[in-house]
Amino acid sequence: MKKVLAVILLLALTFVAFAHVKNVIYFIGDGMGFNHLYLASLLEGKTLNMMKTPYTGIVKTFSANTWVTDSAAAGTALATGFKTNNGMIGMLPNQESVPTIIEVAKAYGMKTGIVVTCRITHATPASFYGHVPDRDMENELAEQLITNATVDIIMGGGYRNFLPMSVKGSSRKDEKDLIALAKEKGYAYVTKKSELANIDSDKVLALFSSSHMAAASDRSGEQPMLYEMVEKALELLSKDGEPFFLMVEGSQIDWEAHGNDPYGVWKEVAEFDKAVGVALQFAKTNPDTLIVITADHETGGLSTSTGTYMLEVEMLKKFKMNTDTFLAKFNIEEKEKFISAVKEIYSIDMTEAEYEWLLNIKKTAKSYYDLPNNFGKYISSKALVGWTTFDHTGNPVPIFAFGPGAEYFTGWFDNTDIPRLIARLMGCPLTYPIYKEPVITGPVLY
């Protein structure tokens, strides 16, 4: 890896003259398709920040071994410029590691940051610093993150992967204390929003929950919102005027779409877009900042119709709770309370037959997700929102860009094109050694 980075750094020097971007803020909406954005825009009653760009493109998302990618393969493509198999992070299908855009930016002397609302060791953020054959190797990814120290500002969830096994709540299988190691390497460690506000350090490890952070519609107290983390990250990364690269993920759009939950999707997209707004404000006073917004894949096959030439926008606006929270609060086996709550929270008059159908799903469930998924699809159907799956699709996703170089992000792209173009604009091309350019097997490319 060190040899590869050295070659890249050498190659980068020959391209400096072409660079005109100082800072890059790279937004990834996990699972966010065109219709997720459009639905959120309708429910917000306004054009979203990211939809205001004059530069829009379309991105293909397939992985090396299937037309429908997972987040690990998609994250790797968006972070390294190379395809890999589903489930793999920072590696080619033959398990050869490839450098990430953050590793290249760091080698080139830039400051770096990652801000997410999932575990920091989850697939997308891990793709920007990690190299493992299986995305579930989150303890190994946590160790790589701290040991290699290529990311200066780290914010998200998941401290369970950093605590020694003997500490309550740890998910590690050893006694490695990665929090202590991070402190040795100069990181300020915080776990609360109130602590983050007072931090003025060049290196920060901020982990606000044991696992993933709460959903946007539920988050409160000492867990910051995404836009608040972005504000702080930009403050810390820009304070001395040095160039930086920041990746921001709206991690939970995907999960709400997996559950076919239109309210959850709305609130997650809205939170993500508010963070984009913070970046756009930063760019007004830092015009040499490039902002790129895209997604790793589409989730759910969301449709703004069920074939009736109608969409109940006003009904959707009255929804008050995401389905996971609703099902945690109201027990489906308490019939009268449950039916009454459906009316109160979603303005839906649930029939006896509909209730019995959902109750039977719980009784015969083979997975924890069977009931919340079908409940999400049920409330969607009442508002005439359609879904084709509870999983990912192969649908293309949008890309938006603001700032210097934004004009290059129009037309059709493969997801591997995005980090290569960003790196080239930064003046540090994401170039694998030419003599070892790999041939990726998998779907027939066109």
Automatic annotation (TrEMBL):
Database matches in InterPro entries: Alkaline_phosphatase (IPR001952), Alkaline_phosphatase_AS (IPR018299), Alkaline_phosphatase_core_sf (IPR017850)
SMART domains on file: alkPPc
Keywords: Hydrolase, Magnesium, Metal-binding, Phosphoprotein, Signal, Zinc
Domain of life where this protein originates: Bacteria
Transmembrane segments: none
KW Magnesium (keyword) present: yes
Pfam families reported for this sequence: Alk_phosphatase (PF00245)
Catalytic residue positions: 71
Molecular function via GO: alkaline phosphatase activity; metal ion binding
Entry's cofactor comment: Binds 2 Zn(2+) ions. Binds 1 Mg(2+) ion.
Enzyme Commission number(s) from the entry: 3.1.3.1
Keyword Signal: yes
Signal peptide segment: 1-19
Residues that, per the record, bind Mg(2+): 30, 122, 124, 249
Names of required cofactors: Zn(2+); Mg(2+)
UniProt: Zn(2+) binding residues: 30, 254, 258, 296-297, 392
Family from the record: Belongs to the alkaline phosphatase family.
This protein's name: Alkaline phosphatase
Lineage: Bacteria, Thermotogati, Thermotogota, Thermotogae, Thermotogales
